[in-house]
Amino acid sequence: MTELTDDRFHDECGVFGIFGHPEAANLTYLGLYSLQHRGQESAGIVSSDGEKLYSHKGMGLVADVFREADISRLHGSSAIGHVRYSTTGESHIKNAQPFVVEYARGGIAVAHNGNLVNAARLRAEYEAYGSIFQSSIDTEIIVHLIASSKENSLADRIISALKRVKGSYSLLFLNEDRMIAARDPHGFRPLSLGRLKGSWLVASETCAFDLIEAEFVREIEPGEVLVIDKEGLHSYKPFPAARYTPCVFEFIYFARPDSTIFGANVHTVRKNLGRRLAEEHPVEADIVVPVPDSGVPAAIGYAAASGIPFEKGIVRNHYVGRTFIEPKDSIRHFGVKIKLNAIRDIIVGKKVIVIDDSIVRGTTSRKIIKMIRNAGAKEVHMRISSPPTVCPCYYGIDTPSREELIAAKQSVEEINSYITSDTLGYLSVEGLYKAVKDAGGSFCDACFTGKYPVDTYREEYVPQLALFK
Amino acid sequence: MTELTDDRFHDECGVFGIFGHPEAANLTYLGLYSLQHRGQESAGIVSSDGEKLYSHKGMGLVADVFREADISRLHGSSAIGHVRYSTTGESHIKNAQPFVVEYARGGIAVAHNGNLVNAARLRAEYEAYGSIFQSSIDTEIIVHLIASSKENSLADRIISALKRVKGSYSLLFLNEDRMIAARDPHGFRPLSLGRLKGSWLVASETCAFDLIEAEFVREIEPGEVLVIDKEGLHSYKPFPAARYTPCVFEFIYFARPDSTIFGANVHTVRKNLGRRLAEEHPVEADIVVPVPDSGVPAAIGYAAASGIPFEKGIVRNHYVGRTFIEPKDSIRHFGVKIKLNAIRDIIVGKKVIVIDDSIVRGTTSRKIIKMIRNAGAKEVHMRISSPPTVCPCYYGIDTPSREELIAAKQSVEEINSYITSDTLGYLSVEGLYKAVKDAGGSFCDACFTGKYPVDTYREEYVPQLALFK
Amino acid sequence: MTELTDDRFHDECGVFGIFGHPEAANLTYLGLYSLQHRGQESAGIVSSDGEKLYSHKGMGLVADVFREADISRLHGSSAIGHVRYSTTGESHIKNAQPFVVEYARGGIAVAHNGNLVNAARLRAEYEAYGSIFQSSIDTEIIVHLIASSKENSLADRIISALKRVKGSYSLLFLNEDRMIAARDPHGFRPLSLGRLKGSWLVASETCAFDLIEAEFVREIEPGEVLVIDKEGLHSYKPFPAARYTPCVFEFIYFARPDSTIFGANVHTVRKNLGRRLAEEHPVEADIVVPVPDSGVPAAIGYAAASGIPFEKGIVRNHYVGRTFIEPKDSIRHFGVKIKLNAIRDIIVGKKVIVIDDSIVRGTTSRKIIKMIRNAGAKEVHMRISSPPTVCPCYYGIDTPSREELIAAKQSVEEINSYITSDTLGYLSVEGLYKAVKDAGGSFCDACFTGKYPVDTYREEYVPQLALFK
Amino acid sequence: MTELTDDRFHDECGVFGIFGHPEAANLTYLGLYSLQHRGQESAGIVSSDGEKLYSHKGMGLVADVFREADISRLHGSSAIGHVRYSTTGESHIKNAQPFVVEYARGGIAVAHNGNLVNAARLRAEYEAYGSIFQSSIDTEIIVHLIASSKENSLADRIISALKRVKGSYSLLFLNEDRMIAARDPHGFRPLSLGRLKGSWLVASETCAFDLIEAEFVREIEPGEVLVIDKEGLHSYKPFPAARYTPCVFEFIYFARPDSTIFGANVHTVRKNLGRRLAEEHPVEADIVVPVPDSGVPAAIGYAAASGIPFEKGIVRNHYVGRTFIEPKDSIRHFGVKIKLNAIRDIIVGKKVIVIDDSIVRGTTSRKIIKMIRNAGAKEVHMRISSPPTVCPCYYGIDTPSREELIAAKQSVEEINSYITSDTLGYLSVEGLYKAVKDAGGSFCDACFTGKYPVDTYREEYVPQLALFK
Q1: Which of A72, B315, D50, D258, CA to CA, is 20 to 30 A from A426?
Q2: CA atoms of D118 and D138, how far apart (whole Å)
């Protein structure tokens, strides 16, 4: 069998929560449905009826994890949910979120999008005092910090816990009578507040509000801790100010095009990336073809800016599962072909500009270009709507290690040669910033520049799974 | 729970076969993978090792029905496979194909795409003599006709059987030592011949050849019975000549855009439909937005012909399962929203042309238009890349009954009012023929015109499931 | 893994039916529960609500095959059920009963205990005319005979069908409005009539009546066809008279001790077998130990007749599944030990008489004796409460072939030596007849004597599965 | 559906461990198979290959929880396993054992048979300091005590942990390189040491050694902590001496008759109980009938002492699952009948002595007596091979509460009247002690006398599940 994971980046998670709605669990399920692109490995919902927490989690897609009876057992008018992705062997139900525990003050559930860079150090410290951990995920340390806090209110316990962690987090907490959202001071990951009739919602992306026809109110602010209870909203800003550095890769690849994050619509930003790319790397050609689906908006932008016609020259098979069974004596890898096919009638005899959002290992690009040449293309010009990816992410995106990133070791010319394109053009970092200017001028661009917003974090970073597994 | 079947037409099946390859079953599995769009209800493969038939079938998608161990138990160098769709309650494993039986001459398996209009009459005749049927599908009568034939060779038995049936069929048969393909004299459904090294392949659509890098040789001709055995190909044309009337709806909606059927590439035909539509129904607007994914090629054609920019203003959620769980007190139907979302940033303040391939009941179009208006559109102009659908199909497409087809009862103006568009334009039948002219001038267009190629069939048509269930 | 089938005989089936009770399916489920010992491979129930048949079948035990929802979908006030055993590879859901088909006159379901010796010949005849068979079980020919009968009423069609088959059968038929029971003229297999309030019941053994507190009315007579409909009972005797030869092995091993079959209580007969055995093969010893559970009644009888104390010296593990996982390098076969263990405290230093009902291959007896010797027995005397098993059964019991029956090839002395007992004694055929005299003097004892009641059947017997698979 | 739990007591668990055998996991699986009677709710095995722990647990019987692939993934030459029973709603996989956690010193697994009476108090204490618990079982506190111990070696950490707990425990621990067995100072639950070639085994009962043909070496002593590593055995007695009070109910009901516990064979003790019962409560009768299977040994003893013939007058259905589906309008409870049936032929017209091991709520006895009367018994005399059960158990047996114990509230005469026997006789406490005298004179008999070995435990006992859920 062949895993159909392509060599893209993968965000770790999506979160959704609702407080004060009679169908909290069902709406959370719908919210997770629309955040499914942020994680396909596991899904879970924890609800509260004011007295007790109810939990259902499972491995797989939201549509597979939850049956009607599961939803109906998630009683109560508040709920939080989580979808998770992981490319490692640590794919296990014990790592599925929301994470739920009992401690002296009752039950608490937590759903986390991000990555804590000092989790290993804190965990070692707690274990030294005899604490016992259930999972291999960094999120668990937050629960231990909360349980051992000397503060009285849940909000204060959470704040005291978060003061000790470093890294990226968009968090949702649920206990019996309140829901609390928190976003790290740098604001690495998106998190938004919504409203549906009398209830409050929090979601990783606004597309979750659209589905259930809720209103997008505002983003949770960097460094904000927002407590939602029967009295309403209570906002705290307990952390020292920090530079706002949202993840620019959310715009390039992760977020859904219909979402608004960091103040801008994702599709519009991607189209701008395509426009900039056309300006920076023009080439004479017959058609502009996106790698579906992630390359589509940039290809539309490139086509509009260049005047070269947009064409859907590559078809995507939407019924592809996570794995498929390869022929035994196969010398070809079907991994890309099972998902994508070039349309000969469109391609044959043409000079083709292929638009993709990024190149990771280069193997997928190489296969796509071979496929397009086999369909009769006269020339193939690869255009990438982001700068070369040269560094891994420590803030919640599951990138390959530096050794596997082709751009970390090879020049653009060498990559062009490896993937067999006629020409290859990457968007510049400057072009990137121009394209995202509506969303402000400050981002985490460490994957392209190696400039980590809090670069001292790096020295203490211990690869999470090597230690915890 | 809500079924996520939209109100489109559904083709019943896709077939794939291979003869003379050591990994016959695995390649058939891959072939079915690429024909998955033709049927998602059940999947099956029957293989032969020259002495015995091996079968594995199941309900669900190809990726779910087959595990590695299942494939490895399908021994031998020949195999046929089938994917099936059904919108009725008769969704049961006993109706999954290929249909396999033992009769006096050994085992035989059959995979069928199409519909036999005189199956009920023939079945009643056989039952009167004491024959026993296992399933409620029309295909089973073919096996009874073969089993009771007085001819000696399998090919002759099949020919004598097919001489008695009327309707549409693209068929694959497999017994211990040969594979036989047959296509009805009218050629309603597509069926093509391919070659991979020394082995022969037959598939509903050429996209199945592309995936496994096989060569497309030619179409199986209308009325052809093609026997494939160790000696090679043997072609027969045993039926009286009939008018060639391939199904034009394969071009409009069913077939995959990267396939070549009836002599033309599907995507190219669809783009032409969009161009014609732009000529017939121009309108002043800001953007052309397809209903994904079926409206995309026509929208590209419409945009190119009109000069109005193409925009992906509607996003499709690719993780949607077959059902999802609705909130209990929901007054809205989430069926469309769970799958589609409009991008406000693109739509707001714009005059929008929405392109879809057809309108069946009208309820989906109404919801899509509402969604686009909610996203801030100034005007919404609906354009349909086919004529009004006024009659049901008796040749293998599972259409709603005439009562449910909105265009069968309402004028274009009434439909425009129902779906709440500002203007509505359908492609004319003449425009349709102009767009498909590369594929020849003769088609079955009964769903648009009510002119059934063999209209005497209608009187004897007995709705299949009412009788057989 | 090791199959935990011991080397005993296995009856093929148990049947149960009820007509005229609002909880027909549930009571049939309970009836099958109490007949589970007659077949553990598959279970099924078909019910009728007067208009339609409802079916649920599955592989495994009754308790596993049926969930509450399955029972609730089996509508109506009449139902028949079946449990089946098979030791061959043809263990497949398509062979599960009741067998249900649609034919010209509607639906019909059949449940069969027994074996038809001319089924292969009849099947070949039907296949020659083009009939198609679904399964590899002999029962299916009955349905074809019924479907092709020229008679009008279902009873007459069944009678005309049964006139053509030879062999053993206790049958239950169900169509929309009646239930029909039939027993072959020799009466090989048991079948009894019961009554529960206003409803009629038919079951393989009376223990099924006891469970649901129904009244045992009488046995279905050999050669009787009993029609049960709204008007009540209608009994027919349409077949030529034949010698009554019920299967004596039902008494020795198959039937449950609390059942009454062929006019006698099974436990009482078994105790008598033990008494006779004590008279025929006395030996000086300290304790009488049964092989649980089948040897218990005969051991009680042996102990009572001999005055030697009965002891439960072997314990049975009741939680044994159908298979278990052996250590890889195991040189011992755990097959018996996983199920049975000797109690050293009871055995040590004793002269032990071990009572079992029969010896098939001898391997189990050998292991049991080794186990008893390891527990410290001074002497081990094996006593078997039936004569040596020398011939296979053609009337519904799945015996090993003649080559595998140790007594078919070896003398009692040789068997004694093989199984390592100090002495070995089998009950004589005369002793057997004396013990069962309450049940009448006529039996099928072919497995002990080779005298088949209808010995001409043998020549035409074609091993069923070799042909049909 | 009806739960087929009878109203008996249920022991919580069985444990098995092996150190130093290449097929450790497979032998542990077999060991659990033979301890299945001690717990049917969940099963689990944890193995070690010297570097890492491997775990597989599941709900259900051993035969269902483990497939061959599961066993093969449990690498290494040491393993511990556990079977668990629970009658409460807290039947959840998170409570399945062995319990495995990671803490600062690596991994540790624990399997526990018994009950800790001060677990709730200790847990509250730990939670107050911020510790987080995963399960609702008392065993988890031991892991927290170990993790927070200041000692260096695992053995010392375990000893320091066990010094803080009170109650009953037979424990097995496994870490990467050693297995440690521990039994509480009172020796409430059995635990034995065995040897198989070069490997050491520990099991709740000796029947586990018999199955795999291992040698029974000795019992783990009360208060002993036995460390098994590559160097061999290291025995510690770190606790203050305490009165040896093994659970007498293990002899009466729980343990398997072929096991040797507390120095005596269980079957032999039960036969002695029956003999004493015959002396204390003689009655003129025709037959002695056990309630299968637990009443069999005592019935054999009663029959031998009284001279009244032993008869298997009640048959047990061995195919009974854990639940079955009752008819909806059933006014009778099938719970007993589905499992037991009286043989009329044996019972009718007889004066019957029925032997059972205990009476809990009385409802089962009442149904059994009704069944025997319906089978035609002239008289029914109930004899119980233990004293009246008047108090609940706090040391590991899941008894009903005092309110549900019929003997806690009613006199023997009243019980006789309730269960409708002609006469009723319980064994006296003196008779009980005489029967078990081979096993020594000191027992925990609190369920019969209310004299708890450490009666101060009672005041601090907090019903476990109410607090922890």
Answers
A1: B315
A2: 9
Cβ contacts from A onto D, under 8 A: 61
pLDDT tens, position by position, B432-447: 999 998 777 789 999 9
Q: Are C104 and B130 in contact (CB < 8 Å)?
A: yes
What is the phi/psi pair of residue B175, to 5°? -120, -165
Reference B173, options B186, B161, B185, B163; nearest CA is B161
Q: Name the minimum distance, in Å, from the CA of C154 to any CA of chain B.
A: 13
Cα separation, D38 vs D21, in Å, equals 25
d(CA C63, CA C61): 5
Q: How many beta-carbon pairs under 8 angstroms link A with B?
A: 168
Tokens representing A172?
Answer: 């949702």
Separation of alpha carbons A355 and A66, rounded Å: 37
Cβ-contact A366, A418 below 8 angstroms: yes
**Considering only CB atoms, which chain B residues are within 8 Å of C103?**
127, 130-133
D228-273, pLDDT tens digit by residue? 999 999 999 999 989 999 999 999 999 999 999 999 999 999 999 9
Evaluate if residue B105 carries a pLDDT over 60: yes
Contact by Cβ (8 Å): A446, A115: no
The whole model's pTM is what? 0.81
Q: Tally helices (H) and strands (E) across chain C.
A: 18, 23
Q: Quote the minimal CA–CA distance from C102 to chain B in Å.
A: 6
Question: Residue B84: which of B136, B34, B35 has the closest Cα?
Answer: B35
Mean pLDDT over D393-410 rounds to 83
User: What's the rounded Cα separation, in Å, for the pair D190 and D439?
Assistant: 12
Considering only CB atoms, D144 lies closest to which of A104, A127, A132, namely A132
* Residue found by looking up tokens 């209870």 in the block: A229
Give CA–CA dist A125/A131, Å, rounded. Answer: 9
Choose, out of A70, A210, A331, the residue to mutate when testing the contact with B (most B CBs < 10 Å): A210
Indicate if B444 belongs to the active site: no
Q: Phi/psi of residue D111, each to 5°?
A: -125, 130
Which of residues C417 and A105 earns the better pLDDT score?
C417
Kindly list the residues from chain A whose CB atom is less than 8 angstroms away from the CB atom of residue B297: 312
Which uninterrupted H or E stretch holds C290? Answer: strand C287-290
A47 forms beta bridges with: A54, A79
Please report the domains of chain D, with CATH numbers, ordered by start residue: 2-245 (3.60.20.10), 264-449 (3.40.50.2020)
Token pair in block for residue B451: 């002119």
What are A409's two structure tokens? Answer: 């070791």
C54, C90, C131, C150: best mutation site toward chain B, by most B Cβ within 10 Å? C131
Convert the pLDDT of each residue in A169-196 to its tens digit.
Answer: 999 999 999 999 999 999 999 999 999 9
Residue C347, H or E segment: helix C344-347
Place of tokens 């709440």: B420
The pLDDT value given to residue B87? 45
Question: What's the token pair of residue A358?
Answer: 């990024």
CA A143 to CA A164: how far, in whole Å?
Answer: 12
Instruction: Say which of B256, B338, B345 has its CB closest to residue A33.
Output: B338
- Bridge-partner residues for A84, per DSSP? A13, A42
Residue A162 identity (one-letter amino acid): L
- Mind telling me how many Å the CA of D129 is from chain C's nearest CA? 44
Residues B332-358, mean pLDDT to the nearest whole number? 90
Helix (H) or strand (E) holding D287: strand D287-290
Distance CA A366, CA A389 (A): 17
Residues of A in contact with B265 (CB under 8 A): 343-346
Q: Quick one: which of B264, B287, B314, B303 has its CA closest to B385?
A: B303
Please name the helix (run of DSSP H) or strand (run of DSSP E) that holds residue A119, with its range, or none: helix A119-128
- Environment class of C412 (CB within 10 Å of its CB; exposed 0-12, middle 13-18, buried 19+): middle
User: Looking at residue B332, what is its pLDDT?
Assistant: 61
